[in-house]
Amino acid sequence: MKQYTHAWLAFKAIERLEKVDLSPPNRKYADSLITWFKINRDGTIKGAWYPDSVIKDMANSHVLKFTPADQGNKDFRKLPTNYRMYEFGKTTALYKKPYNVDKHDNLPNRCEALAHSVIDNLKMQESEEKGSPIAPTDNHVATIFFMLSHYVADAHVPFYCDNRSFSSGCDLHGHAEKEWDDEIRKYYRIDTQTERFLYTPEGYPLLKPDNQYNTSFLKSLENELNNRDFKITWGSGNRNVYDFMSGVCQYSYLLSYGFVPMGYDETNVSSSNWHNLDGQSPSFDDLSVMVFTDAIDSIARVWLRVWRKYVKWRK
Q1: Predicted pLDDT at 129
Q2: Closest Cα partner for 311 from 83, 17, 27, 6?
Q3: Quick one: average pLDDT of 163-189?
Q4: Which of 46, 98, 216, 251 could bridge to 72 as Cys pair (CB 3.0-4.6 Å)?
């Protein structure tokens, strides 16, 4: 995903937490996170792009590449039952079939490490005297939060979890991510000089006065989220960020083979046919809704659970 897409997803995750029904204890945790986020929101566009612009660990830490195999692991984790990727993946021919995973890739580990880093830095900030030179600032902690959302979002991009080389050939990966980012920039007001969205009175990215928004997949995903329960669970059997993100990557792999069916790869997918491959399901618009709705819920879930763990420590 590109810069504005990552930042927009982070804002939508916080907006999601503000709108959904939560138990009274979780509502308190969510409200304190929302308040903290809004104080630090101006760094979202830059911070959520830090993994690509500064860290640059794309080769292994933004990906977990799967390859169908004759023999290998057949285990698939569970996800929250209303995840579109989970629902779709269980219908695919590769579900419960053997696969291999590139041993050098570590996207779930990266997410787990950053989740711990958020909590560690908040604890350090809490423990140090005011003015201490080693105390992390809110801006520093917020940047780690935004970085975490970047890696969580990347796990939902099918091309990050498919060992076919879709960044070569016609660069299908690049075409898809450009369409997503173009859509964000088309409909939302962004001050590119200060690298920040313009905000609604509620503090979220402001739409341009364009009535064509209702025809965008962004409107479709918003409608879907508004009619979808938010589940704080990781999914049955998952214990932590690592387990959850490992499951997300598995279903992202299955989604990739739905959108780019077996028999296609970087040698025969072109800039003219990638929207209309034989046997392609889902369509690109439907894939986009799946990826974005699940990514928003995942960022919201990971952030809330990380924040809750820190607040419980404070008590």
Answers
A1: 87
A2: 27
A3: 93
A4: 98
* pLDDT for position 130: 81
When the pLDDT of each residue in the chain is averaged and rounded to a whole number, the result is 95
- SS3 of 41-54: HHHHHHHHCHHHHH
CATH of the domain at 66: 1.10.575.10
The number of angstroms, rounded, from the C-alpha of 257 to the middle of its chain's C-alpha atoms is 19
Q: Which residue has the higher pLDDT, 256 or 209?
A: 256
Q: How many domains does the chain have?
A: 1
53 is in which domain, residue-wise?
3-314
* Cα–Cα distance, 253 to 272 (Å, whole number): 23
Read off the pLDDT of residues 3-33 as tens digits, 9 standing for 90 and up.
999 999 999 999 999 999 999 999 999 999 9
Distance of alpha carbon 221 from alpha carbon 294, whole angstroms: 10
Mean pLDDT of 52-56: 95
**In one letter, which amino acid is 271?**
S
**pLDDT tens, residue by residue, 69-106:** 999 899 999 999 999 999 999 999 999 999 999 999 99
CB-CB contact of 157 with 291 (8 Å): yes
Cα–Cα dist 115/150, whole Å: 12
- List alpha helices for the chain, DSSP H: 3-19, 24-39, 44-48, 50, 84-89, 107-127, 138-154, 172-187, 217-226, 241-259, 284-314
Confidence (pLDDT) at 53: 95
Burial of 286 (0-12, 13-18, 19+ CB in 10 A): middle
What crossing angle do the helices spanning 138-154 and 3-19 adopt, rounded to 10°?
A: 100
Please give the DSSP secondary-structure letter assigned to residue 257: H
298: left (phi over 0), alpha (psi -120 to 50) or beta: alpha
**Residues 6 or more apart from 255 whose CB is under 8 A from it?**
85, 88, 89, 158, 282, 287, 290, 291
**Is residue 118 within 8 Å of residue 148, measured between CB atoms?**
yes
